[in-house]
Amino acid sequence: MNAARIAAIRCFAVRLPFDHGAPAPRFAGTPRTTLDSVWMRVELDDGLAGWGEAYAPDPEALASLVRSRVAPLALGQDPLDEQLCERLERVLHNAGRSGPVLHALSGLDIALWDLRGKRAGLPVSELLGGRRREQVSAYASLLQYYGDVGPLERQLHAALEAGFTQVKLHERDAASVEATRRAIGVGVPMMVDTNCAWLPAEAEAPVRAMKAFSPLWIEEPLWPPEDLASLGALGRATGVPMAAGENAASLHELLQMAHGGSADWLQPSAIKCGGLSALRRVAAECAAHGRVRLSPQTAFFGPGFLATLHLMATLPEPTAIERLFCGLATVPYAQAVPLEQGTFTLPRGSGLGAEPDASLLNAPL
Ligand SMILES: [Mg+2]
Fold it and tell me: Which parts of the chain span the membrane according to its record (predicted)?
């Protein structure tokens, strides 16, 4: 019997400066010099605290929404109630069906899983059905080099030297894909993320040009990303496996995608789509239908990454987790969740199994 209630939600802007061996890439129209998200600490009235993470290109805006909309509804609630976030999503639907509202609830959901694990004295992966493995391999997800193959090749060699055995590019030209295949050799799986590069009528030729270099998947080739019919048609026309899902605006959309017919690889983002609860449901739906493989998007480093790692340790079929390949001054959870030879070892502690490095946290927003 546990009577503890949610007493506080605090948001922290975590902005990680990075070095990827090239000038700052653009992100949402401006140069990007830090990798940002909001880490959320959810505190109970008995002193226990859990950590979540929310997608937040603008941390102050996310924190403002948490203060004005989410916290007033969540404070006083039972952290063990697994329906809480879904109920809040329903109550909050007039404040926005997707975007920051869902991102904030994603962070809350992840923190509640951390709390449930800590309360039970079990790793989150045990609450999700139990670990099938203690290690999860990662793929090196390179940042964007805009077709500049010099720094791209240097980063590819660095990734292989670090022990990664799979790589992903964020390029849009076949010459970069060709250079990558040449640099990594024929046996190394390579994925290509184009970040919604083309309109449906434009996409077939560039996708066919990349096909010659055997990508494992091409990710988000189409704008808008919710045009699932065109995505399915592109995959069928070219014979290239399609990956998508990080921009899905709801769990419902992801569950539809899990039925097949659009993406071959489904990439829910735990810090966007409703947290670990949503990720778990998408994983179950993929397994039930057996037509779409799950490869969660994890272009982030905080509690959302840990939560995804726990889920992936429970999946029947191992798949690699995404790891942005760049230098960080401080690598979150480097001690508790070591990355060696391109493979993460899961922490054994309760909850998410690792606490944030205090040096990453400034005053709450
Ligand atoms: Mg992507």
Answer: none
CA–CA gap between residue 58 and residue 115 (Å, rounded): 26
Instruction: Report CA(191)–ligand 1 centroid distance (Å).
Output: 10
3-state SS record for 26-91: EECCEECCEEEEEEEEEEECCCCEEEEEECCCCHHHHHHHHHHHHHHHHCCCCCCCCCHHHHHHHH
| 61 Cα to the center of ligand 1, angstroms | 23
In order of start, what are the domains of the chain with their CATH numbers?
6-121 (3.30.390.10), 126-356 (3.20.20.120)
pLDDT tens track for 268-323: 999 999 999 999 999 999 999 999 999 999 999 999 999 999 999 999 999 999 99
Distance 79 CA to ligand 1 centre (A): 32
Q: Are 139 and 133 in contact (CB under 8 A)?
A: no
| 133 C-alpha to ligand 1 centroid (Å) | 25
CA distance 314 to 132: 5
pTM of this prediction?
0.98
